[in-house]
Amino acid sequence: MYAQQNDMQISAQGDDVLPLTAADFAAMDEAHRQREVERRQREEQQQRELENRPKWMWSDEWMARQRAWEEEMKERERDKDQWERTKSDEEKQWAERNDAIRKEERKEKKNESNDPFHYTFKWEELKEKEKLFFGK
């Protein structure tokens, strides 16, 4: 194969022409044959692996779906870990907000019940409604 090509090889300088011997061509042919043999062996190994799989795993589509599912599970785990970390912070913030709201409500209720005029205003409102209703 390589022996059919030129008998000369140009060096890196471009000016010098080095003659290739038959041994050089034989070495190149052998290296090429070796690469071909390795490629065939890899292909045969892959084919044996495909044939040894259970029938439901034969399709490449199934393998692609399996890999995608595994990636999704890994991503969900990462998201879950991130959510667990942020969840505790959010829960603390919501608890603080709710506590502040409850304190305000208690203060308003307390102020309302402690206000001495609170009941008098209610009494006066009732009297006004009574006047409107009965016309007195």
From TrEMBL:
Protein origin, superkingdom: Eukaryota
Region (Disordered): 29-53, 70-114
Name of this chain's protein: Uncharacterized protein
Lineage, broadest ranks: Eukaryota, Metazoa, Ecdysozoa, Nematoda, Chromadorea
